[in-house]
Amino acid sequence: MRDRAMLMLMTVEGLRRVEITRMNVCDLVHMGDPAEAKILVHGKGKDSFIYSREDTIAMIGDYLVARGKMQVDCEGEEPLFVSIDKGSTPRRRLSRIGLNGIVDNYLSNVGVKQEGMSCHTLRHTCGHLICRETKDLRVVQEVLRHSSPATAAKYSDVDSKLNRHTKNISIKISR
Hints:
Elements: H1 2-11, H2 17-22, E1 28-29, E2 38-42, E3 47-50, H3 54-67, E4 82-84, E5 90-93, H4 96-109, H5 119-134, H6 137-144, H7 149-152, H8 158-174
Antiparallel strand pairs: 1-2, 2-3, 4-5
């Protein structure tokens, strides 16, 4: 459940690896009402709220129920995502390296792991999907919280780049 929630936040909501690992339980606002739920994201340089999809909110809620209450960390906060030991016991705040390992494992398991493909690839997937659906770079910029429109513009040419790799990925997934 933890992994699904993290993958959803990166792929569908566009969160960065560091934003996932910095999340605290207190950053979840109005979780009881998915229509009003929002998440405080501790981003690069500034904090902001995102209004997540209802299925993302539900997935996080299910994970929290299954995980149970955690002790506060050295910063006095209850981390949202924690590492899990071999006995399935929640331990402490998940590190960026730990998150890398989780994502790399999933990418390898579905047969799409390549050099340079990592957590940030999931964020790029989010940007690509938004650009493809809306054709509006301002929406991409807003969702991904880019300060510069030029950064968001990278997603406008993603289709041509992805088409070279899509055949290989779909063949590997179907096997």
